[in-house]
Prior knowledge:
This protein is of the alpha/beta class. The protein has helices at residues 12-15, 82-96, 136-140, 142-152, 216-225, 240-247, 260-273, 287-290, 315-332, 350-364, and strands at residues 3-6, 20-22, 26-30, 45-49, 55-61, 66-73, 106-111, 120-125, 128-133, 158-162, 178-182, 191-194, 197-200, 230-234, 252-257, 280-284, 300-303, 337-343, 368-375, 393-399. The strands form 4 sheets. A 7-stranded mixed sheet has the order 16-15-14-17-18-20-19, sandwiched between helices. The longest helix has 18 residues, at 315-332. The N and C termini lie far apart (63 Å). The relative contact order is 0.09.
Amino acid sequence: MTTIQLKPNKQDSLLRFHPWVFSGAIQKIVLDKDYPYAEPQEGEVVKVVDFNGKIMGVGHYQIGSIAVRMLLFGADNLPSSFWHDRIAQAYRMRRTLGLISSNNNTYRLVHGEGDFLPGLIVDIYRNTAVVQAHSIGMHLTRHRIAEAVASVVEEVENVYYKSDDTLPFKAQIEGEKTGYLIGNGSDEEFWATENGLSFRIDWLRGQKTGFFIDQRENRAMVEHYASGKDVLNMFCYTGGFSVYALRGGARSVHSVDVSEKAVELVRKNVEHNFPDDTRHTAFASEAFRFMEDIRDKYDLIILDPPAFAKHRDAVRNALRGYQRLNAKAIREIRPGGLLFTFSCSQAVDKEHFRLAVFSAAAEVGRNVRILHQLHQPQDHPVNIYHPEGEYLKGLVLQVE
């Protein structure tokens, strides 16, 4: 096994169980005498030691600023049962939390570092698991992962692999980046259940794994507040917030997305749950164009845009975008209205997002109160040693 030796005093983060080793912390790379290559291969399991040779653990090696993603601390190899054990641990936690039931068969089974499997995402939709790899190591292990998921979760009959947009773009990838690893799909539309509501899941063509599971609890909060209100759901995608608002007794719900395909999907989801319900209308429109003329039309607005900043260099522009978007909603919402506003940009922390929303309120000059501070749900856990995993943040505001 290849050994990664750290520079002096660069082991402290690993002693605190942070799961990343940065390239700048590496003193040297020592190859086994029988190693067939001149340098370590991306995705291979390597051993990490401190400057004095003390074992820190093992992880996946990768070219880039994050050189090793740690899988197991204090060990010099992975036991044969590693993948099954880790996925079983994640599944038990979801069972303990009460997330899996006849009323809810849509949940995240593995959330990367939050489940001590950095670079791996697994979402469950009824009898199908959708796997995404964000590292070469997880890509190379995809078949073992699929077997472990199918073994642990008895409901799973199909495992679909969807990593064409998530793997490092410079990597020399061998093998499929998308397709079924176990089972196969059906030509029929696939529906899964979240909190008693049905949603069309399209992992073949949809964004991410086909559905944004991370907003489940926040959608339920919209349902709680929707009764008798005129609701605007911006950046609606599959219309999750819209469907919950309708069940909550909204007077009207308008869903808006720039994508015609998303608008068609939200219409299907609404019709499936509430046939012939005239309270809902969907629009294909750019966000700011639609919001040009909404003064006093809505008393509940949801802003859930795509990530404005995918890396640190884009944070400044992202914050300006959040400020502009929230200022428009705060200016136009009815007096006493509620604004649900979110950021899913990992590069934007909650303090900076809150500052952007504060700046928007100050710009408009209306009285605004924070009623709730929102975050990702319990099946998207944050590893306490890896605070970077807290990517979803949101606020519920009342605007006077």
